[in-house]
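G., before I forget:
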Amino acid sequence: MPQKRYLLTPGPTPVPPEVLAALAEPVIHHRSPDFKTVFLEVLERLHEVFRTENEILVFTASGTGAFESAFANLLSPGEKALVVSHGEFGTRWQKLGAAYGADVVPLTYEWGETPRPEDVSRELAASGAKVAFIVHSETSTGVVSDIRSLAAACNEAGAISVVDAISSLGAVPLETDPWGIDVVVTGSQKALMTPPGLAFASLSERALERAASSTLPRFYWDWTRLRGAQEKGSTAFTPATSIVVALNKALELILEEGLETVYARHVRIGRACRAGAKAMGLELYSPDDDTAAVLTGILTPPGIDAVELRLALRDRHGFTIAGGHGDIVDRLFRIGHIGYVDVFDIVAVLGAVELELVEMGATVERGAAGSAALAAFEAED
Amino acid sequence: MPQKRYLLTPGPTPVPPEVLAALAEPVIHHRSPDFKTVFLEVLERLHEVFRTENEILVFTASGTGAFESAFANLLSPGEKALVVSHGEFGTRWQKLGAAYGADVVPLTYEWGETPRPEDVSRELAASGAKVAFIVHSETSTGVVSDIRSLAAACNEAGAISVVDAISSLGAVPLETDPWGIDVVVTGSQKALMTPPGLAFASLSERALERAASSTLPRFYWDWTRLRGAQEKGSTAFTPATSIVVALNKALELILEEGLETVYARHVRIGRACRAGAKAMGLELYSPDDDTAAVLTGILTPPGIDAVELRLALRDRHGFTIAGGHGDIVDRLFRIGHIGYVDVFDIVAVLGAVELELVEMGATVERGAAGSAALAAFEAED
């Protein structure tokens, strides 16, 4: 039979068959009432997932595009912007800010560290920056920031907070309005269980006021232009209509399950993955606590090459997982478990890891990972 | 039975069932060898359709995004750019250029006019602009420019030509390399028979050289960043993977049919649509010649409201066509016939138009349109 494929990366993530079926429906015109109905439903459902009454804009782009729109709309050339980095994506946003001609004030942690609100307060005060860019879930390390406290630090300093929630929104709690976050950005291809191609940004009144007087050049990313169209249930430019239709189905599934249930499932699946890895005697790279609900970063035993392991999982068994970076590329592999992932996916991937580790000469107790994963998943809080 | 739907707008266009089936395949990771294989095949096939050996960049965006990338990469703040408009899209590019801080030199024709190479030569000489932005198929009017002569005028003036071929590429001849066009931009959702969400730009050596020293801010649109990733068979940002997979199938179908055959089909379908409209006694708004192979613009008889006609076609019969603009919004309707459209689609939509015109009180010879359309389609050149 053809090799079965398992997608367990922190994005793109597996997409439910109902969503793929919606994706394959005949194309509809983006100015038709059929599309308008779907689009308005998508916006309404996104508001529930974002936990906000702020306006949410839809971009046909990757998450980077929607995040770029925040720089382009909130800043004028040479203006200061605090950009917090604790991994690959924070570094990307620092580069993006510099490319756009902002005066980037970097607050840079070691990869694997968690940003501290007191550092944000100090840097905002010292620099006078009025906009702060922060990553919620740093996909490169598995660290999920305490975005509630970080946003509070921004609010106390009178700074606008822009949060990269690309791999977190819909997986772990994020309360846009109750936590007072000005701009929340996410993409379709993570916890929202939809193929890549769409990205979103929610915008507070304060952010919109600032955008009204900022002068960095923008057209495709221009919030004013996009808002004008969305107010009429339409889009300024031809959107990825098929992905909008698919997303509507995915959001329906998420809201039917219930956001709280979805969050709890992610926590329990994270526990399962960590318990399984530890039962194999492996060391965790991502945090060993319930914040690590997006992905699990695991180190191979000394002498076992993580790249080789990952390629064997992929080519021999059909499992696509993520690799590591920098100094620990030889040791780190990352299992993504956001979106359409259940505990049996975790049992399956840990089984494949176990098989390959034994094959590569590691000492691993056979069968320990799967049963530990299931036990951790089933355990009461 | 549920109402059948017919999509006959100049984009999005109907998508073949084989392409929809490819769209619905399980999501693959954009850094996987599975994706790389598809992506490289897409690039190879795009080169055939673009008729170029230049590099082609793939954007997850609408066509506007890819066109924006040409402004962002080819210009520095305040630099002159000739932007030719003969309809809605040319006007959009003039606004985009101004939004980006270029010094836009407008060459603006009445809607429905065809740009003249001598005007381009004159304006380039007078202004000293070194980049010219031109629309190939102006979707608002149905006018297809003589882009070969316009590009030649740019080349003679030593100016870089950027061509909006969004609704033309793959429908009507466009020879990127033989005609010396520096930048050709198109989207997935027109003649390429794929859902919206991807856009493309081919880049000449000369365009890349200019981009190397231009300073408008860019990150998501940054050609250098995108090229670096594509050289490795990858993308800089998460692409709309499912649409890439679907596009690969669509390009396969197009190249199997053969580009020359595809062009000839578009010409004959344009003839069919015009002949049918005229047989009903209707006046054409788009040109009455073989250049009008993308869409047919038709005026209703005096006293018959085009908006009402269009809504009746949609709500009563399931046909989505396009409307008009400005002073003639009450008279103009546009039938798109690019991509996955055959002559029987034209017979069908003309039948619906006939039915509704009679219903609305117009004098129309019943059955004339369909037989005239088929006869025109079948006639030898």
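Chain B has two domains: 17-256, 258-378. Chain B has 13 helices and 14 strands.

More on Monday.
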